[in-house]
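Postdoc handover notes: sequence design on the structure in folder B. Input tokens:
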């Protein structure tokens, strides 16, 4: 009986444990994703930590994940260099925290088309180049570390 209880406790702890990816999270304070979206210029080139629900993960390489604040529905993408961190595809629906440098990407119309096409291919979605209307400014976090929390 004791063995059964001990096994149950160990199994529960294993499933409840967070999955740490990349470098350890070091910031003591998190930045609200809604604040990043509302005032992106205030955060560009600064180290930030965010928390949210994982709603998407790169299907091909696991090189990015999308976090959404459940309360505000604000979203931010965490992007890493291919192979540096691989975000698990089964983390969709789980809460996660991530840390990195908040960056601004200015894309020409051609770059925006190429990016949208690449993302459609990663997600196995159809793509129409006409859906991209012009140059694009994108804000995202250049991820250094993350933790899948549940």
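Designed sequence:
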């Amino acid at each position: 009986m004791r063995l059964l209880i001990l096994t149950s406790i160990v199994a529960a702890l294993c499933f409840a444990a967070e999955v740490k990816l990349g470098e350890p999270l070091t910031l003591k304070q998190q930045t609200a994703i809604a604040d990043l979206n509302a005032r992106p210029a205030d955060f560009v080139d600064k180290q930030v930590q965010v928390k949210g629900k994982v709603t998407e993960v790169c299907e091909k390489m696991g090189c990015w994940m999308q976090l959404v604040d459940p309360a505000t529905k604000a979203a931010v993408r965490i992007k890493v260099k291919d192979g540096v961190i691989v975000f698990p595809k089964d983390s969709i629906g789980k809460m996660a925290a991530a840390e990195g440098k908040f960056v601004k990407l200015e894309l020409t119309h051609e770059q925006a088309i190429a990016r949208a096409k690449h993302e459609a291919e990663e997600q196995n979605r159809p793509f129409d180049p006409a859906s991209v209307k012009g140059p694009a400014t994108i804000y995202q976090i250049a991820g250094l570390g993350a933790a899948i929390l549940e």
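Context for whoever picks this up: Residues 3-14 have pLDDT under 50 and may be disordered. Don't rerun without checking with the PI first.
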